[in-house]
Sequence to fold (411 residues):
Amino acid sequence: MWKYPKDFPILDQKIHGHKLTYLDSAATTQKPKVVLEALQNYYETLNANIHRGVYQLSEKATEAYENTRKHVAKFIGARDPSEIIFTRNATEAINLVAYTWGEKNISEGDEILLTEMEHHSNLVPWQLLATRKGAHLKFIPLTDEGTLDLKNLDAFFTPKTKLLAVTHMSNSLGTINPVSKLIEKAHQNQTTVLIDGAQAAAHLKINVSELNADFYAFSAHKMLGPTGVGVLYGKKEILEDMPPFLGGGEMILEVYKDYSTWKPLPEKFEAGTPNIAGVVAFSAALTYLENFGMENLRQHEKELTQYALGRLKELEGLRIFGPMDISLRGGVISFTYLDIHPHDLGTVLDHQGIAIRTGHHCNQLVMRRYDVSATARASFYLYNTKEDVDILIEGLQKAKAYFDRGSKKGA
Ligand code: 7TS
Fold:
């Protein structure tokens, strides 16, 4: 019996009279008790503003906040904690790079290389930058199978390609991209690389130093942590060379009427009071993941995904998006079923206590590529079981029967 769901109080509830079957972890994961307790403990015993008080409580809060920075650095294999910048989410981390590194390094006529499977968070900031600068966006296309089409990779890199921004794992197709190879290729061309790790950091063991990524962005809330905490990893020498993003308290060294000077990393990029409680509790989430083991998590999700793909294929009229080879994908399965609109499917499943995501998943380029307006998406995490997959399959069968009845009535 899989024991982990017990650590997640929210899962022990009924929705429309049915046990909650939560299959939307790609949107946000549920939080284990240890994270909830860390949040409560912070406010009960530590709450004070950080980096400014000379009193003991503030020093303790600062220490707890900085301990998470060290913990994140260790978790993703960064060389130095000052390479970890806390933001609100992955989206803000990517925007930080677009507005600071981008402002300094992108000029008219330069090229930014993306892929057709980017989440809007790793697309729109580059569109805005390209518009400001008169730069161009280029896109690595997708194969019919849902992987990056890398046949003509060399042709995408020109002397003008200043940045490659690519997702490590797609939130709609589940595809895990060969980022090591892409980073190597980009660096041969003097191209800087940002990896959108919003999905991958939650599901795969990451080592940013081995990957040699220049930037790596992700969100705590997708990996058992609280909402409102994101991470930008950046190589020290690159971050040091970047102008600040937001101006305000805590990021300055000295302020005069007409100019200011900046603190060193990481404070230069952390203006204002951050989400102290969230950052502190994020460390408890990382400890939970370390105890579980990222390799075990990957293995668990592989088994679950393999099982789910097999069972979904039993349903006639069900179309699965993304690669079928389990080594190329994570625990995210997008699908359409017969001609039932994904939103209708989501609503019927909700009435059976099953929470899935429906829509374009902030991936409109992917939807266009495969000629659909929306898909249904089930995504897994360490608390999901094969029983959850069986409940989903049963739910889909009931949905088919429900819509069959409806169409017969209408005929
Ligand atoms: N990049 C990827 C690949 C994502 O999956 C997401 C969120 C983001 C960036 C943005 O993360 P945020 O924490 O800044 O919002 N993806 C999803 C999703 O699939 N459903 O809801 C949010």
